[in-house]
Specification:
Layout (H helix, E strand, L loop, with lengths): L1 H26 L3 H45 L4 E4 L6 H13 L3 E3 L6 H4 L7 E6 L5 H10 L8 E7 L5 H5 L8 E7 L4 E7 L8 E8 L3 E3 L6 H5 L6 E7 L6 H7 L9 H16 L3 E7 L5 E2 L2 E2 L1 H7 L5 E2 L13 E3 L8 E6 L3 H4 L9 H28 L11 H12 L11 H30 L8 H6 L3 E5 L14 H10 L8 E2 L1 H10 L2 E6 H11 L8 E5 L9 E3 L5 H14 L1 H9 L22 H26 L1
Parallel strand pairs: 1-2, 1-3, 3-4, 4-5, 9-10, 9-13, 16-17, 16-18
Antiparallel strand pairs: 5-6, 6-7, 7-8, 11-12, 14-20, 15-18, 15-19
Helix pairs in contact: 1-2, 2-3, 8-9, 9-19, 12-13, 12-14, 17-18
């Protein structure tokens, strides 16, 4: 516009100059006047051409700076403009950088656009600016393709004159669903902005109007969110790698979603149903593949599901536990589709096996009070028996006034067994009556507590260290992941557990799900597995009273399981959004409630009863053995004394 205004102004001045020359020639015709008129005319033309060129260049630069500022403001994101492959003159670039800096927009003109070495920290801020008119454009785009710089969250703004044909260069750009590539076509009146992307690798470049700039930025996009503009992938096939480890029948039931044999591979089934719904929301073609392991690095090569993602055989996989940090180099975790926990599941050992239940009914202070009272009564009975012995004649059932008789009577009262000797006088009998009555109430409370404690489970194992130090047998489900996860940790407690489950010599403690749950039921057995199928089996086989002492202990100490997606996948952001929409709608929660089994609830804890075993009476048996040994020693000592 400025150029045309100056051109019209120049033509009007030229017409005025011609008229002035004609007037001067008509007044005095001479060679000198003719030459002077022509020289003046040439100087004037040169001056006007220089002025027009300067005005056009300065106006063009000013418009470009205003456009960039308005464009960045319209993005509503922190932005650092990276000038790539510009063939502009240094003065023009310097002025552009200075003007953008005054507006608070950072700029950079690196010798290379290797984002991995310099800009990885601020990738979300980076806006690459390139002029397709420059000869270095092809090399810049080739380098960007090599380093995968057209992916999210990097942004590109390509400048182009309307007369230039750049379709060949643009067709080769891998601008997929998450790319932010904008073509700015500069015309005489305005700058047209067009978004470019491909729905898939083999698809044609799709262009959609973003807006235009004519002094002000006009954004014509129906939605500012990238997801809403790119959610239609136009039937592009998306493949999910499903990990099956329980039964080969899952290959038949999973794609049909028939809800059969839920005791096998329920996690992959839920993940597939949720992922298929997400594919339909993106207008993608659902496809699936199967793998028999989650994926671990063996001899430097990935295996299983992770290898399928790494080699682009699949786009996403069954959600897995984030236990191996090396996976982060090849996959990115998105959202949780089917929650599950990997734990040691076991029944708490009976209380008599881990504690002396004959000491537990009373607190330490009560036991101390009983001991003090016993000593006081022993002393009182001793003085009463001594006084009675001096008054009465000696008989077989009468006290002899010794400390031994007093202690024997007190011990008889404590054990509620009675004694063949008894006081004859009223004071002694009253003391004996009070002693037996008080200890009878104490004995009743003690016996009641013992009965409860014999049936009570312990709460002795609540941590991994306590489990490792216990006498509980440790074992694991005989599936792929249990042969790898135990070796990932190097702390002493986990190393001890690893050696107990999978020793270097001998057979490892690996069992099928059915055998493992049966051994959990028998007690003193901890089974490491995904807990949901274990609980399903427990609901089918355990009695109600056997569910009350179930306990979990976490070995992995990891985060919740998340869905792995191929690293730098162009569909990563789209999948993240649709997964969150599915979760927020309640569909994911409904699927989990329908197909998963929670931890069994204890409904008949009080009604539980089991016979008392030898283990329960261990303290009593030990006390009896000590008593027998003590009595034998006393007998030997008495025999030696009387013989001497």
């Amino acid at each position: 516009m400025e150029y045309f205004k100056l051109l019209v102004y120049f033509q009007s001045l030229q017409t005025s100059l011609q008229k002035a020359c004609k007037v001067s020639l008509s007044i005095s015709i001479g060679l000198e006047n003719i030459i002077m008129c022509r020289v003046t005319k040439m100087k004037f033309v040169t001056f006007l051409m220089i002025t027009i060129w300067a005005r056009v260049v300065l106006t063009k630069d000013a418009n470009l700076v205003d456009f960039l500022k308005t464009y960045v403001d319209n993005e509503r994101k922190p932005t650092m403009v990276v000038l790539t492959g510009l063939c502009w003159k240094k003065d023009r670039v310097r002025n552009l950088v200075a003007d953008l800096s005054k507006l608070g927009i950072r700029t950079s003109k690196p010798p290379s656009i290797d984002i991995q070495s310099k800009y990885h920290v601020v990738m979300h801020n980076t806006l690459f600016l390139n002029d397709l008119h420059c000869p270095e454009t092809a090399e810049v785009i080739e380098t960007a393709i090599l380093h995968n710089l057209f992916r999210y969250p990097l942004r590109w703004l390509l400048l182009k004159n309307m007369s230039e044909n750049s379709s060949v260069i643009l067709e080769d750009i891998p601008a997929f669903a998450d790319s932010d590539l904008v073509l700015a076509e500069i015309t005489e009146e305005l700058i047209l902005l067009t978004e470019l992307h491909k729905p898939n690798e083999n698809g044609a470049l799709i262009s959609k109007d973003k807006g235009y700039y004519n002094g002000t930025m006009v954004d014509v996009r129906p939605h500012r969110e990238l997801f809403k503009r790119r959610r239609d992938v136009m039937g592009r096939p998306l493949t999910m790698a499903n990990v099956i480890q329980d039964s080969n029948n899952t290959r038949y039931h999973l794609p049909r979603e028939d809800a059969l044999e839920l005791q096998y591979d329920v996690i992959p089934k839920i993940c597939w149903m949720t992922a298929k719904l997400a594919f339909q929301m993106l207008n993608a073609t659902p496809r699936y593949t199967f793998s028999y392991r989650w994926g671990y690095k063996v001899n430097g090569q990935w295996s299983g599901m992770i290898n399928d993602l790494h080699t682009s055989k699949a786009d996403l996989g069954t959600n897995c536990v984030v236990s191996d940090v090396e996976r982060l180099s090849v996959v990115t975790y998105t959202d949780m589709l089917a929650p599950f926990r990997v734990r040691f599941v076991f029944r708490q050992p009976p209380l008599p096996s881990v504690a002396n239940i004959f000491y537990l009914p009373f607190t330490g202070r009560v036991w101390a009070a009983v001991a003090v009272c016993a000593m006081v009564y022993t002393a009182a009975i001793y003085w009463a028996s001594k006084w009675e012995f001096n008054l009465e004649k000696r008989s077989a059932s009468q006290f002899d006034g010794t400390v031994g008789d007093a202690m024997l009577l007190t011990m008889s009262a404590l054990s509620q067994q009675g004694c063949f000797i008894e006081p004859k006088r009223a004071p002694g009998r009253i003391m004996l009556f009070v002693l037996f009555t008080a200890l009878m109430a104490l004995y009743a409370a003690y016996s009641a507590n013992i009965v409860v404690l014999l049936q009570a489970p312990s709460n002795s194992i609540t941590s991994l260290a306590q489990l490792a130090a216990s006498k509980v047998t440790l074992a694991a489900n005989d599936v792929d992941y249990n042969h790898f996860v135990f070796s990932l940790y190097k702390d002493p407690v986990r190393v001890m557990i690893h050696k107990r489950i999978d020793p270097e010599t001998g057979n490892g403690q690996f069992y099928s799900l059915e055998d493992g749950v049966d051994m959990i039921r028998q007690g003193f057995f901890a089974f490491h597995s995904i807990v949901e199928p274990v609980y399903r089996r427990i609901e089918e086989t355990f009695l109600e009273t056997e569910k009350c002492d179930l306990t979990e202990v976490d070995f992995l100490s990891s985060f919740d399981p998340f869905v792995p997606v191929k690293k730098d996948s162009p569909y990563l952001e789209l999948l993240r959004v649709v997964f969150k929409q599915i979760r927020e709608s309640g569909i994911q929660s409904a699927l989990n409630r329908r197909y998963q089994v929670p931890k069994p609830r204890c409904s008949n804890k009080v009604a539980a009863f089991s016979s008392v075993g030898i283990v329960d009476l261990r303290p009593v048996l030990i006390m009896m053995i000590y008593g027998i040994i003590s009595s034998c020693l006393i007998l030997i000592m008495e025999m030696l004394v009387f013989k001497m």
